[in-house]
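Q: Got a minute? One more chain.
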Amino acid sequence: MIGTIYVYENMDCKKPSNVISRMKELGYTNIQGFDVEYGQYEVEATTPAADEVELEIDPITGAVLDIDENWF
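A: Always. Here it is, folded:
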């Protein structure tokens, strides 16, 4: 046996499609680069004010944890 896989039945993560839909509702455009790093969703997008940003999003609550305006 190489490793163990643990299944957390009570984990209720937000689906990436739900996070993207909510971002669109908030006025974000050009949503791309959706990935997971250090247990958080990271998404590149353009704000309603036309700024390019990278958002860190909590996968459980969907809360925005950080917005990095100088990610590129």
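A: The helical segments are 16-25.
Q: Perfect, thanks.
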